């Protein structure tokens, strides 16, 4: 009892539970409380910033996964759907005994389709060197979101259509988005590159591969190599040009393949020998 | 941040885990569907054409 009396405290009515705690005063209590709160705010901000940075790192890593893997998954699926959805009449099926119908070589001037509207699929590309199951759609234009990232192969507008004199110039991704020109560097002079429109086969043969700067637009000129301002000669040769990025996963340069038309044939006659040699055959449902 | 989200999630532990997985999946799906295609347009390594369009 003498202790309680010597240290009076507010609310001293309570009794019988040992010494009362001393009230330290409002200012002191405030100062003690503010200090850990300020440190807590800093720690919370640092914590959130750290979590945001970790999140950004994870999302950037996922971007790489998306670019290198998912665009191929989506691109391949979409491009196969386009090929399957074209519903073009297949070349005549192989006869029971006579073997497959082989298209005859036509070397006179081929039929040429009119240039279609932007992003319209008008052709299929077969490249025996790239495997028997390789077939990709070709659409008008080289816009990335509507053609190159989705449909696959794009036709430079205002260059020749397949079979026409001048330069049938195309572009496609070498990596990602279904990568139609992934194996462009494997093409050798003499390799067949076969373009099919709804009615006609155009069999081109590779003549040349080279690496150029992205600014060298003469590769898609009506006569490859013709520079802006040069007089346009009379067009006689029917060129094919394929452009893609180089090196892979970069856009520092462009990989270019040129070819010229070997022959053409109506699809109704059969399948070009070059495709049959590569094991590319057709049944009534289209590509096997 | 993630601690606060976790505390905001309702229900027992298993439901919180399910909700957290769904939320994370939704963020990844949104990135794959919209954010990354938009971002890829500004990346320099996808160009395959010659000429002004790069």
Automatic annotation (TrEMBL), chain A:
Catalytic residues (positions): 173, 245
Transmembrane helix listed as a keyword: yes
One GO MF term attached to the UniProt entry: hydrolase activity
Name by which UniProt lists this protein: Class E sortase
Annotated InterPro entries: Sortase, Sortase_Class_E, Sortase_dom-sf, Sortase_E
Superkingdom of the source species: Bacteria
CDD domains: Sortase_E
Pfam families: Sortase (PF04203)
Keyword list, A-Z: Hydrolase, Membrane, Transmembrane, Transmembrane helix
Low complexity composition bias: residue spans: 1-20
Region spans: Disordered: 1-35, 84-113
Bilayer-spanning residue ranges: 41-70
UniProt keyword Nucleotide-binding present: no
From TrEMBL, chain B:
Top-level taxon of the source organism: Bacteria
PROSITE patterns in alphabetical order: PROKAR_LIPOPROTEIN
Lineage, uppermost ranks: Bacteria, Bacillati, Actinomycetota, Actinomycetes, Micrococcales
Protein's recorded name: DUF4175 domain-containing protein
Keyword list, A-Z: Membrane, Transmembrane, Transmembrane helix
Record-annotated membrane-spanning stretches: 13-36
């Amino acid at each position: 009892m003498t202790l309680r009396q010597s240290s009076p405290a507010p609310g001293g009515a309570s009794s019988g539970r040992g010494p009362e705690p001393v009230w330290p005063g409002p200012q002191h209590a405030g100062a003690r409380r503010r200090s850990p709160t300020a440190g807590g705010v800093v720690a919370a901000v640092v914590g959130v910033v750290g979590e945001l940075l970790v999140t950004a790192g994870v999302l950037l890593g996922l971007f790489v996964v998306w670019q290198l893997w998912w665009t191929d998954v989506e691109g391949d699926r979409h491009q196969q759907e386009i090929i399957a959805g074209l519903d073009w009449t297949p070349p005549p099926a192989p006869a029971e005994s006579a073997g497959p119908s082989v298209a005859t070589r036509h070397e006179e001037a081929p039929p040429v389709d009119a240039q279609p509207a932007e992003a319209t699929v008008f052709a299929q590309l077969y490249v025996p060197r790239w495997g028997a199951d390789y077939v990709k759609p070709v659409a008008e234009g080289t816009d990335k979101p509507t053609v190159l990232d989705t449909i696959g192969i794009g036709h430079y507008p205002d260059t020749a259509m397949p079979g026409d004199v001048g330069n049938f110039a195309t572009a496609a991704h070498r990596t990602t988005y279904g990568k139609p020109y992934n194996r462009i560097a494997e093409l050798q002079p003499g390799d067949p590159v076969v373009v099919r429109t709804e009615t006609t086969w155009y069999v081109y043969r590779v003549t040349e591969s080279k690496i150029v700067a992205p600014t060298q637009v003469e590769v898609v000129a009506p006569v490859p190599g013709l520079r802006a301002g040069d007089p346009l000669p009379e067009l006689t040769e029917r060129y094919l040009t394929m452009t893609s990025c180089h090196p892979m996963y970069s856009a520092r340069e462009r990989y270019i393949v040129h070819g010229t038309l070997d022959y053409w044939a109506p699809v109704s006659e059969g399948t070009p020998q070059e495709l049959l040699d590569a094991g590319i055959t057709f049944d009534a449902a289209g590509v096997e | 941040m993630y601690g606060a989200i976790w505390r905001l999630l309702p229900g027992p532990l298993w439901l919180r885990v399910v909700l957290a997985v769904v939320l994370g999946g939704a963020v990844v799906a949104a990135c794959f569907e919209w954010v990354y295609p938009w971002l890829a347009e500004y990346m320099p390594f996808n160009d395959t054409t010659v000429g002004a369009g790069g």
